[in-house]
Fold:
Amino acid sequence: MAAPSVTAQRQEEITAEFDAASLELAHELLRDFLAPPPDLTVTQWAETNRRLGNMEAAEPGPYRVSRTPYAREPQDCMSPRSIVEEVDLMWAAQTSKTTAMLNCVGASMDNNPGPIMIVWPSNPVAKRNSRQRITPLINESPALAKRVAANRSRDKANTTQLKEFDGGILAIVGANSAADLRAMPVRDLYLDEVDNFPLDVDGEGDPGMLAEARQTTFARKKRLVSSTPTTKGFSRIEARFEASDKCRYHVPCPHCGAYQHLEFGSDKAYGLKWDKDSAGAPIPSSVHYVCKDSGCIIREHQKTAMLAAGVWVAENPGAQGGRVRGFHLNGLYSPLGWLSWRTIARAWHAAMVAVQHGDFSLLRVFVNTRLAETFEELGDRASVHELRKRAEDIPLRTVGWRMAVLTMGCDVQGDRIEARLWAWGRGMERQLVDRAIFWGDPALPESDPTSPWAQLTEYRRTPIHHLSGAEVPLLAVTIDSGGHHTQAVYGYARAHQAERVLAVKGASVKGKPIIGKPSDVNFDWRGVKVKKGVKVWQIGTDNAKAEIYGRLRLETPGPGYVHLSKHLPGDEFEQITAERLVTRYMKGRPVLEWVLPPGKRNEGLDCAVYALAAALWAGVDRWSDADWQRREEAVQAPIPQKSAEEKGQVSPEKRSVEITPAGPEGGKIGSLAGLARFKRGR
Ligand SMILES: [Zn+2]
Structure:
């Protein structure tokens, strides 16, 4: 959260500015209702007045809309004469999205002045863009420089985030400050990179909506919303585009003349195509576009003429009374000399290579920034459905043929401990073997038989068998100490060190290894130093979740594949896929962050993370073929019947007798809760 004093001070400044300008604004409001709007369109203004600086454009110099012909109509919808109220740009990177927005801002300041607000994802981004984008916009256009200069003499008329100009005011704010977003009435609102806005600002809701609410006073309000899309289900620009008239840019085939919009078409007969070299990489000179209509071969140099002849075609014409126009544009339209088709082909190839290794991060970037489409995370309903569909008919608590060892991950909640048993095979192939929930207060000592710790100990010591009948070794158990009952976790880990019970602590710091170095905790809960301390292992939860979600996408058994049983309680599939990767801005930088949508539970995913950390701690990812062979032979060989009883452990048959029927709250957890619900003597 931003320091309150700074925010308060800024709000005071803005309020003071607003008071000073209120008379002018009253006139402006009057003019807004009475005076006819100016005739000049945004692109006419930009071609006369706009110079692109080095900071903004790869090609500095006077603005020419002919360089990006698709940018004409969206900009002109922002002209005062147009009836359009909202323009939504769902555009790929390197298509001149920001230049188009700044043209609209400049045209308004000069041609149709009034209160204008630009919102960027955070205050640091807003400040940086003010210096790198807004200052050059004003300084490089004599008309604007003159208008702003007229107010320069006044104290504080021009700060990084507030520019007063002849007839209006321009506020440049971050979407992470509710106070700034509602500081003043706004006629023209610009929401840039809206998919990177915080989901909620200062508990007041969606920042875009908060800013929009400031526009209600104005009859001729204008709004431009732009973004490269991010995650499906979370993407604001996609939601706005879907509600708009949904325009795509249709260009004529230079051979047959058929109008069509350009598509990447990885799964289609038309689209971007190329020949591959012996390593499977695209041969640059072979990259071409296949016409959808007649299969004509289109070369990239023909794109310039195609763009010039292009037209925007609405899929949903007249949506919202024609007042909301949406424009979708992927990277294939990027003008010659910016982003080439061969670069796109190469990026796709790199993403596909990464996918084969279970890493979907490059594909996500490709889909978002090149195709300007949302990326579907595994946490959505369809994928849950897929996982369920492919689940195998293997009983719970039974280890499959390709697996040889077990680990357990535990998550401590206020009223229970949740555990998941995972089995491991070569190449990190894995199987979720069991889910157990031990109800009770984790503050109770293990010596109390009703304590969940006592239940956990018994569960840990109960043998798990391979399909061969052999007992499968439990290599390590990890318990999260970062949530509830930290001291109880330390105490339990200390007491059971010999059985490889580890206290772990998750850290969602990017780039942290899944299992890091341990730190010693030598203090008890009163802060008094104790002799026999406990090691706490750091876990990089971000990396672990990415690893797990990448593996869950694999569709054929083999290295990395995740085996799930049909007999798991239904909500386990939802829990393990509960989180989504979304982009957030932290200290002005975009950060991919795992987010649990409201109302969803994720203990299954957390436990999977801890069990993965336990497996890496035990070194299963580093075992040689010989190590694996030894392990596999050990579990696949037939074993004598009595091993469990010999060790004085409870046999599965005996244990099941001790299980009490599931109580009323047990019903929603499913049968496994019952299995794990030991007699509590109530
Ligand atoms: Zn054609």
